[in-house]
Amino acid sequence: MMNHRKRDGFTSKFGAYAAVVGSAVGLGNIWRFPYMTGENGGGAFLLIYFIFVIVIGIPVVLSEFVIGRRGRGNSYASFVKLAPKSYWYLVGLMGIFSAFIILAFYTTVSGWTLHYIYLSVKDIFSATVSSSPAEIFNEFQKGTVMPLLWQFIFMIFTVLIIISGVQKGIEKSSKILMPALFLILVILSIKTISLPGAMDGLRFLFYPDFSKINSNVILDALGQAAFSLSIGMGALITYGSYIKRDNNLFKTALSVSLTDMGIAILAGVAIFPALFSFGLSPQQGPGLVFIVLPEVFQQMMWGEIFALLFFILLAIAALTSTISLLEVVVAYFSEEFKMKRRNATIFGAALAFILGIFTTLSFGPLRNAKLFEKTVFDNCDFLSTNILLPLGALFIVIFLGWFYEIDQTKDEITNQGTVRVWFFPVFVFIIRFVAPLAIFLVFLKGLGII
Ligand code: PHE
């Protein structure tokens, strides 16, 4: 059972905020959001994503905090505590399963960021280099040893932080890395907004073209919102269990969600003006930031420095997210199977890495190994982002809205009646009706079931 005596946790409000923002802000904001927006018509996608974050995202973040802090355990144990003798723990287990899948393909891309830091240092994106960024990217991706090596190194960084624990590892590193990330992003945005022709990029990002919207775009936007906020898979239940009793959960949920959305938009502001300024297309898919941006950097004054800054930014963002993914697994292994934290970390990371080998090689030797016309990487992305996370979020709101006692939830959100709760009725209405219905419909429609 759980260990109440000396459970590790976040020591301060800012520490908790930085850690949760660290989980939320990641490749989802800086790599995935821009290319999804680019492929799905710009402003219209942004608008739907925005609506999902407000209407579904924030309530789900809060719900996960409630489950975690009330349950005081990993995502499995928290459900067992709140709903003993029921099958709700399966939702917790599903989250742990999702964590493995996401960690696998996430570290593939994270590894790329390290390679690109290395290339930037080697000056490969400076004006004097003639090989095209598309060639560089394709050549690298097709390989076997280098992509796996970088992925492995990235996993080691993740392991080192997680071994150090919640306070000394996660909280401490997030408090340093998140402000650094914000600073780099602001510098990059200022630079790109000042490029000639930047307005076209901003127009693309903010001006909605509704003719681009269809049910797939809506499912993509829901998946993007869920992925970006780290909801539906137990990360925020696990982190919620480390939040102190007197922190205001609603304020934390709100500020984290707004920060996450703000950072995604800021990433868009840093990227689209540059693309348009140099006459490049935003519809490049996952290669967007690895092909198109280096192209931009090559044409830009001091491009090497901006390239270096950008890929450091990407790596930092990725790292504070992979630690939250690994923590979901480690909290479960160490609390349920009495494994030492160190062993649980190495074991969990090794399992995820094995799956990760396949996601990485699916750009090279395994690129023709397809299931449902998708590579291993694409299957992992689709299964987790568009299916498991929305499904997890759906079960979480149904659990709190319909099965767990509402008074208990209120007790947790109000810190035992000590904070005001004007929003509580709205929250209950959303988790009972709005969120379940919306997720359900988007889901069925996006999968072509209705
Ligand atoms: N939110 C992270 C991102 O946007 C990804 C993530 C998903 C991290 C789920 C943890 C859990 O990159």
Concise overview:
The chain has about 450 residues and is mostly helical. It contains 18 helices and no strands.
Key words describing this protein structure:
globular, binds phenylalanine, Amino acid/polyamine transporter I, 18 helices, mainly alpha, single chain, 450 residues
Secondary structure layout:
Elements lengths: L12 H12 L2 H13 L3 H29 L3 H8 L6 H33 L11 H10 L2 H19 L2 H28 L4 H9 L8 H14 L6 H6 L8 H29 L10 H12 L3 H34 L4 H21 L14 H28 L2 H8 L10 H23 L4
Helix pairs in contact: 1-8, 1-12, 1-14, 2-10, 2-12, 3-4, 3-9, 3-10, 3-12, 3-16, 3-18, 4-5, 5-7, 5-14, 5-15, 5-16, 6-13, 7-8, 7-14, 7-15, 8-12, 8-14, 9-12, 10-16, 10-18, 13-14, 14-15, 16-18
Bound molecules: phenylalanine.
Rough outline: globular
* Number of beta-strand segments: 0
Number of helices: 18
For the biggest sheet, the summary is: none
Number of domains: 1
Please give the alpha-carbon distance between the first and last residues. Answer: 43 Å
CATH T-level fold name: Amino acid/polyamine transporter I
CATH architecture: Up-down Bundle
* Rg (CA only): 21 Å
- How would you spell out the order of helices and strands? HHHHHHHHHHHHHHHHHH
**Average predicted local confidence, pLDDT:** 90
- The fraction of residues in strands falls at under 5%
Question: Can you offer a commentary on this structure?
Answer:
With 450 residues, the chain is mostly helical. The chain has a single domain, classed as Amino acid/polyamine transporter I (Up-down Bundle), CATH 1.20.1740. Helix content is 75%, strand content 0%. It has 18 helices and no strands. The longest helix is centred in the C-terminal third of the chain and has 34 residues. The site of phenylalanine has 15 residues, from helix 1, helix 2, helix 10 and helix 14.
